[in-house]
Amino acid sequence: MSRVCELTGKKAMVGNNVSHAKNRTKRTFDANLIKKRFYIPEEDKWVTLKISTSALKTINKIGISATLKRARANGFVK
Predict the structure, then answer these.
(1) pLDDT digits (tens, 9 = 90+) for 39-71
(2) Strand 13-18 vs strand 45-52: parallel, antiparallel, or unpaired?
(3) Which among 4, 32, 44, 49 is least surrounded, fewest beta carbons within 10 Å?
(4) Domain residue spans in the chain?
(5) Could you give the CA distance from residue 76 to residue 78 in angstroms, rounded to a whole number?
């Protein structure tokens, strides 16, 4: 499974390691992902999502139902 947030679509970015001598080598900046289980009362079921920690903060703030509705509107969740 790829390292992509299932709610926000965040994924790895590409950048450079820069040494003290300014030598540049390619590297990736991975998204900060966690695997978390949520209970959705409207559907009366548990779902496991691989989400970014910023998405978890959004869920804590506005709730899982509103976050899923927002993600569906943006095309990230079916």
Answers:
(1) 999 999 999 999 999 999 999 999 999 999 999
(2) unpaired
(3) 44
(4) 13-74
(5) 7
